Amino acid sequence: MRTKPLLFTALAAIFRGVAAASEPSSTAWCFIGCQLAVAGITFGGSPSLLVEGYYAYNCQNELLVHSTYACTKKYCHDEKQWEAGLNYMEKTCEEQSFTLLDGNVDAIANVDLAKVVVVETGDLTQYNSTAIASDDTFTIAYRTIDEWYSQRQYHQWYSKAMYIFWGIVLALGVGANFASWITSRKVSLPNVPEDSSVPRKGPANKIWTAIRTHILLPATFSKSCSQSKLGATLPPRAETLIILSFIIINVVLCAVSYTAFPGNAYYAQTNLQTWRYFADRTGYLSYANLSIFFAFGIRNNILIWLTGWEYPVFNRFHRWVARVSTLEAVLHSIGYTAFSFTFGGYADYSASFKQEYWYTGVIATTAMSLVLVFSIMFLRIRWYDFFLVLHIVLSIVTLVNLFYHTKIFNGEYNGFLWPCVAFWAFDRAVRIARVCFHWAFAATLKAPLEYDTEGNILRIDVTNVFSRIAPQGGAYYFLYSPFTLFGWENHPFTLVRWQESSSPSLPGSPVIDNEKTPDEKVPQNTTIAPISSTPSTRYTFLIRPYKGYTSKLAHKMSKTTNKTFLYEGPYGHTPDLSTYTDILLLIGGSGISVGISAIYTALATNPTARISLVWASRKAALIDSVLARELKCAVETGRVHVNAHITRSSDAHIRAENLTEKIETVRPSVKERIGEAERESAGRLAVVACGPAGMMDDARKAFVEVLPVARGQMELFNEAFFW
């Protein structure tokens, strides 16, 4: 006996589309198997398949419907299967404005199987009475339905696994952030006992130190984390482990749970079945990952606040999830291409391009792939504005075409797509709101520009701009130049909050009794004057001109000393240094923007901490300039120890009259500085690092090496430049 159901191949092709429209429970699969089995039998009567169409035929043709009931009674022995099947078929008919004929359990129970004709596979006779398929035909039909819907369940379960995975990762981040917040609330320097420098050697502390040393803090391999290798960077080890786990899970879920068998009623060839299941699986996973990388890629991300992770962390997750999603989209396209060629050859493949779902899928996959290509680090750094515009345009093209790609499923997959639109729209709305807030409340939008040619530093003084607002020093703002050809371009710069030296005492500095001698220690109950936006408080963007936007700003100095900006922010934050006994700042070049804000914040909130600034720069003129202005007031407090390193020997002869510390002409040994700071620490050491990639990697590596042997507590605040 032939097991290949040749008679109902055409009907099965139609039925596949109907079966995909809604998801029946597994209890209904036997009933649906009967529908598929009797679909191979030719029935007379009205309505007919060819005249009235598929739904009228399946819902109203008495012979077909009663034959389905007879098959159900013979092969489905549980009345729950009957009820589930009837409910599913009734719903399907109602969605198409039809009523299922005799849609009740009694209609099945009253069937007299003795009067029913059994039709063998291959019988082309037209029947004008109730008939059912043979055992072999039903077995094939039921197994086909079982595998079809089992595959769809796998697709859906595995898609949900993406959300479960990231839900677990984020839950761990939120929990750790909450625990850190609780711990920080318990730490208060004025109440630290005299023996606070004695390290805790308990098992829990040792385990936590080992986790930080070997998992959370180090680079993935060696020391390279911020530095580019082969045109790319690797994130810290903990992030790499998360990303690698995510990739492995996706690879495994794309490769498992496929069952193909000869004679399948939909696709008789096993390779056809495998290609179809694989194409659907990768399509599901690609769709599931879409909303995840959209959520991770926005600036105004509530997850940043919940987890305490910086934007670069989520941006790296965004990139890797996007890469996986794009690769799955490509595999989805390859799978359907192979399926089409195997099913009908080149003729079937070329004809597919006339179908909307097909060519919109091709456009979407191509757009996603182009985003991936143009997002490589080399292009991002050199043509950032071009990359940004192209990124947005191609993302919109992708989403629009994906809506059309799955339109044939009547919105079944829109649940994957609308969150992407929502995340993007929310982020844009908040960004516009931030700009409008500063526009509405700023005293002026014009800011004076000053370009220091010797130090190669551009200053944008926004003190008057923020005179009515309490801006956040150390955070970064995106600056727009609205009255330019490309007014939508925006670039992030760190806002520096500093004090002018004309102030007799630094707000936030210890209020010291004049009768005390300089050698006396500041008492633990020293009062702190809160920082307020007084005339002595200044707000400045310190910018190192490079190619592109910043170079244009420096060039503007030849034409005007004032420029109108729009401001979007604040983003990020200044490290909380209020509970540390010692603070070491490792700064390279223009990273001093972070260092200045951190220093003044520490002076204002931490009355006893010893602050050491190690600053390396190619140009002594830059150090001279900043020490004479932004850092002068901080240095005059006597609490900030500055050690400057000029890394270009030709500039070593330059000195600043106000500089009391020695300038060294060699690069600082980051490891020695951290080790020295740890040995001299009175209890809790904070290391703040901001500078070029090499310096940041050195700081990370040195910190990880010192951490296991540290006597007290140590914390690394890695404020790396990020592309």
UniProtKB/TrEMBL annotation:
InterPro entries: Fe3_Rdtase_TM_dom, Fe_red_NAD-bd_6, Ferric/Cupric_Reductase, FNR_nucleotide-bd. Residues 513-522 have a biased composition (Basic and acidic residues). One of its GO terms (biological process) is intracellular iron ion homeostasis. It is a multi-pass membrane protein. Residues 580-702 form the Ferric reductase NAD binding domain. GO terms for cellular component: plasma membrane. It is found in: Membrane. Residues 282-400 form the Ferric oxidoreductase domain. Its main location: membrane. Residues 502-525 are annotated as: Disordered. Keywords: Ion transport, Membrane, Oxidoreductase, Signal, Transmembrane, Transmembrane helix, Transport. The chain crosses the membrane at residues 161-182, 241-261, 284-306, 358-379, 386-404. It holds the Pfam family NAD_binding_6. It comes from the Eukaryota. CDD domains: NOX_Duox_like_FAD_NADP (cd06186). GO terms for molecular function: ferric-chelate reductase activity. Residues 1-20 form the signal peptide. This is FAD-binding FR-type domain-containing protein. It comes from Pseudovirgaria hyperparasitica.
